[in-house]
Protein: Carbonic anhydrase
Organism: Sphingomonas kaistensis
Amino acid sequence: MSEFQALLSGYNRFRTHGYREERRRWEELATGQEPPVMIIGCCDSRVDPATIFDTKPGQVFILRNVANLVPPFELGGGLHGVSAALEFAVTKLGVKHILVMGHGMCGGVSACLSGHGEPDRIFIDKWIGLLDGARDKVVAEAPEDPQRALEWEGVKVSLANLRTFPFVAEREAAGALQLHGGWFSIAEGTLYELDEQVGEFAPVPDAG
Ligand SMILES: [Zn+2]
């Protein structure tokens, strides 16, 4: 079976089980969406937020890109896909929480650490350049695990950049929107949460 055939087989399972069993929910979803949470994650195939958080369609508005980055607010320049999704989630859907979720073994972060200039990285280098300041800081501090340090630092950069968007900052100040930082360890299957007061990540305790 080809990889694409395997994908279609998955679709057939969805039609037979997931869709049929939750048909009513799908009918409700056809009238609109009101997700309370936005997640900004990495494209990496191993860190699907719907899997990690066991969510159903309609619950979470998800934006994924290389290294789960948010650029700073700016009006000029190129096309602003992240900013457009953010604007829609915050001003139209009215999400109450935004989680920026980094992860272990992130290829984008690794590329930033290894430096720029590979000829086949036409777009990636510029994009992960958003982490250059954080990378310089991490390299200067020479931590035991620079990859993880930059993955964690990258989440903080994205949170700081989120707050440069006036519609985010205003709602956060008014208590209508909460920002969260997280990091998922693929090796452990564990989510770490950022405590912004102390600037450190710690595992979210298992229930029971
Ligand atoms: Zn990644």
